[in-house]
Specification:
Layout lengths: L1 E9 L3 H12 L4 E4 L15 E2 L10 H17 L4 E2 L3 E4 L8 H11 L5 E3 L1 H7 L10 E4 L2 E3 L1 H14 L3 E3 L2 E9 L2 E9 L5 E11 L5 H7 L7 E10 L7 E4 L8 E5 L2 E5 L3 E3 L9 H14 L8 E11 L14 E5 H5 L4 E6 L5 H15 L25 H8 L26 E3 L4 E2 H11 L4 H8 L11 H13 L3 H19 L5 H17 L21
Parallel strand pairs: 1-2, 1-12, 2-9, 5-14, 12-20
Antiparallel strand pairs: 3-8, 4-8, 5-7, 6-7, 10-11, 11-12, 13-16, 13-17, 13-18, 14-15, 15-16, 19-20, 21-22
Length: 545
Amino acid sequence: MKLSTELLILGGGATGLGAAWDAALRGFKTVVLEKGDLAHGTSGRYHGLLHSGGRYVVRDPQSARECAAENAALRRIIPSAIEDTGGYFLSTPADPADYADQFLAACHTCAVPVTEITTAQALQREPLLNPRLGRVFQVRDAACDSFDALHLLAHGLRAAGGEVFLRHRVTEILKSGDRVVGVAGENLATGEPFTFHADLVLNCSGAWAGHIAALAGCEVKVTAGKGVMIAMNSRLVNTVVNRLKPPADGDILVPVGTVSVIGTTDTAVPSPDQYAIEDWEVDLLMGEGEQLIPGFSRHRALRAWAGVRPLYDPGGKDTRHMSRAHALLDHEERDGVSGMLSMVGGKFTTFRHMAQLLVDAACAKLKTDRPCVTARTLIEPPGTPLHALPKRLEALESGKWQTASDATTDTGQPPTASHQQPAATICECELVTRSQIETNLRQSGSPILNDLRRDLRLGMGPCQAGFCAYRAAGIIHETLGHSHRNSNSQLLQFLQERWKGERPVMWGHSLRSLELDLHIYRSILGLDTLPTEREIEVYPTERTS
């Protein structure tokens, strides 16, 4: 495959899709290349927080101002992906008493909306919080489903005439002299090679930005800062809760969907593709959770995972003290290589602002004046409400998700209103229906269960795919006509991904749940004895006592 475009954007995370949407709205012919699925990288592996700016007001006021502005903008642009949980910054007995005054003064300086409330008011809303709280401040934090957000961005991009190519890995930067003119690589779904020529290449590959730059002969030192998070099996809080102290490990608890997420740690790793979750990180997070919610460690931990922050700070400090700010790199001025720009660093909350700066720079390079319109362009229809947790259940009970595939009459015809049955629910934890899965499969053509997980939250609830995975594998076989060997392989790969996150927190209730899953898949379904496209073990044989 050989194609050409004006702007070629490498990376299908928030920054890359945000830049592509921005560029397409300005009239550029725009293409995005992503080596995995949407939200495959760092954008899909964070704690789900839409920052109010409060976390950065003392140490990084510029980032705080940007977060406050972008928080308001994203609520207008992609409301259905954002839940208005609100946020608290609260002082526990373990936090420095003098930080509260610094925090309040810095919020006012940075124009971050803040209100002080009483401990009684905080405990009335969140009764599980530490009753020995000191001061409490209310901010405009929110929870954001990055999977939904990135799908909305991709939809907005396509509506504006842009294209997204998933599972296209770049292996070569094409140059003519000292100018980048395109890329070459492999379609990972088919194994076929591809070539894209472009007027300008925008490197938005996050923690992999250094690797992409090196293919063009440029050195970009991006530190991969691993952050471990743990999902608990219920929403212990309905408000984002932050410790009132300088940013540290395990100082935030975020309600996301049906779970709550505590995070994060911060350690440098050699590669964004190879890292492990270590016991000390899990112990630290569970211990810090006790400061926020007494008895936190007695609640069931579902799984642990890690994302890799793309930290760019030539100063070489430790990762906790590296700036979370973004950096726009012009490789012509910096390295003598024209035809490519890189955007590194930054946060999910500020992706729209970062995209605007990047496409502004692209316009300057291409000598055209095309103003940014993303701050006032809505991807969803006007009046779309913010997300609320009960919406899935309300849609299910009201029959909004009901389709002919969910229920049929005894004549094989779609049900009428007089005898309509409830939608067939495949994932009870996250209320994912058969019709949603079938619609997604027909639109994407992808037989990969992990894609369904990212798109629909399949298997992300308390049972961790103990019951829905094999049902969904059967629907893939029926809908796409894939062989049983392929369906078995996809199911086993999906279970292995679940295992990776469950193993670090495998004790108590979690261990009992895993043993139930093992019994279902091994003893009842005999899955590890079924033929597959390649040898895959259902679960490794080692055990944790």
